[in-house]
Design brief:
12 helices
């Protein structure tokens, strides 16, 4: 016969160890629901210790109510953590109503273990399924296998809890209290132990993959505008030039610069200048196709790579961008700005993006000299 109190005690210790490990490795840097994750583990550990006490001796009403409220609260905290990670908020009513209702129900039926157990198993099974729900709807961010691993562990825990509920409904006399080592009773707790290990391992792997993806994103992206940085643009532009050469397809590039940007910073401040750059980045991105590449080359200079686009087509797009960019004032200071754009097309056999960018930047300089707020093109013979 499996000793249920021992299983509960081990489960409590495991929760403490996992919570301590997460806290020690992420202290001061918790994000994406990690604080709720640690709180859920600590709350579940406390609930398991109360269940151990209940299994070893006849419990009082306070112990009965406290144990189920803590257990249900831990499920709500797990659901909160998963929702924060998946960026899919759950209704607060679904999170905090179960502990409240179970506390009230257990207070009323403190002397009726079967009724308490039937209701608590039904509610906890629902809460475990609720933990899996945000992960099944999460947008792709890192390998999906880890999200499904965690969701699967919660769903498996829900199924095992429902099996225990079924036995309570069909043969309640076989489970008079928590200490009974009846197979389904004991196996459900054993499965919960396995789910705890597998599920929390999956949660750790989810967070690790997200941290890795964010680190890679920081390396490749400009922090202010979230566009590609110069290094990433150069690498991807080189690959695109090689592809275009193989397919004999044209490639063009735009270099865009907001006019009088230093004066904007001097008059309105650096924060207003940052708003202008973010707005410009958003307007450029909104006008591009899926295959186009946009990057922030330097402090106030942006580049757009246009695959399968000849010089004339690039000039048309540049004129449209020039008209759209700065059409609306930016920020509380209502800053108005215009842009100048240089356009160049890759030469036949050109694989290095540096000369292409240089020609577009030279055309940009010509646009500035021509009075700004205009488009200049670098002819192919340049």
């Amino acid at each position: 016969m499996i000793d249920v109190p021992t299983l509960l005690a081990v489960l409590s210790v495991d929760c403490l160890v996992i919570a301590a490990t997460v806290f020690a490795t992420r202290v001061g840097r918790m994000q994406h629901g990690q604080a709720s994750w640690v709180a859920a583990l600590l709350t579940q550990s406390a609930a398991m210790w109360l269940f151990v006490l209940m299994a070893m001796s006849p419990p009082g009403t306070v112990l009965i109510v406290a144990s189920i409220v803590l257990l249900s609260a831990s499920m709500s905290l797990f659901a909160t953590s998963m929702a924060a990670f998946a960026e899919r908020p759950l209704p607060r009513l679904l999170l905090w109503l179960p502990p409240i209702l179970l506390g009230i129900q257990h207070t009323i039926y403190a002397d009726d273990f079967i009724t308490r157990a039937q209701v608590s198993n039904a509610v906890v099974a629902f809460q475990l399924a609720l933990c899996a729900w945000p992960l099944s709807r999460a947008a792709s961010n890192g390998p999906a296998r880890y999200r499904w691993m965690v969701a699967g562990s919660f769903l498996l825990g829900s199924v095992s809890t429902l099996l225990r509920l079924a036995e309570l409904l069909v043969a309640p006399e076989r489970l008079p209290d928590l200490s009974v080592g009846e197979p389904i009773n004991a196996m459900s707790f054993l499965l919960n132990h396995v789910n705890l290990i597998v599920g929390n391992l999956g949660i750790a792997l989810m967070h690790r993959e997200r941290s890795r993806a964010n680190a890679e994103r920081l390396v490749a992206r400009d922090a202010l505008t979230e566009l590609f940085n110069r290094r990433s643009f150069t690498q991807q532009a080189a690959r695109e030039l090689l592809r275009a050469e193989r397919g004999a397809q044209p490639v063009s590039v735009l270099v865009i610069d907001p006019d009088h940007f230093r004066q904007i910073n001097a008059r309105f401040g650096a924060l207003a200048g940052d708003r202008v750059l973010r707005q410009l980045a958003q307007e450029i991105s909104a006008a591009l196709r899926g295959q186009d590449l946009c990057a922030r080359l330097s402090a106030d200079e942006f580049a757009v790579l246009l695959p399968d686009t000849a010089l004339d087509g690039a000039v048309v797009l540049a004129e449209r961008l020039r008209t759209q960019c700065g059409a609306q004032p930016v920020g509380p200071d209502l800053v108005h700005f215009t842009v100048s754009i240089g356009v160049a097309e890759a030469l036949p056999g050109e694989r290095d993006p540096a000369p292409l960018l240089a020609r577009a930047q030279h055309a940009l300089a010509q646009a500035k000299q021509a009075g700004r707020n205009c488009v200049a093109r670098a002819e192919a013979a340049a």
